[in-house]
Amino acid sequence: MAHQEFHLSFEGYWRDVDINGLPNVSGIYCVYCCTYNNEKKNLSIRELIYIGEAKDLNDRISKHEKWEDWKKRLKGESAFVLVMQLLIVPTEKGAKQQ
Length: 98
Known about the structure:
Elements: E1 3-15, E2 27-37, E3 42-54, H1 57-62, H2 67-72, E4 78-91
Antiparallel strand pairs: 1-4, 2-3, 2-4
């Protein structure tokens, strides 16, 4: 039986208005209620509202059935999506891991 390692690679975050720019990769995503400070170039996270996984992050998130529910939770904020690409690496059984 082939063994596999799973690696997560942080790909970035996207505002709700920019979700069509999400990468077409498999991975894990988190949706947050956030306020973006353009002057300081940082986020203030108020609440994690969803964690999911998808084979195609762009397709899944841009058509997600819960977007309207998530928008209702925003209090003058934006929804941000944090994306981590899932990389699957085949390994030999008993091979030394780095």
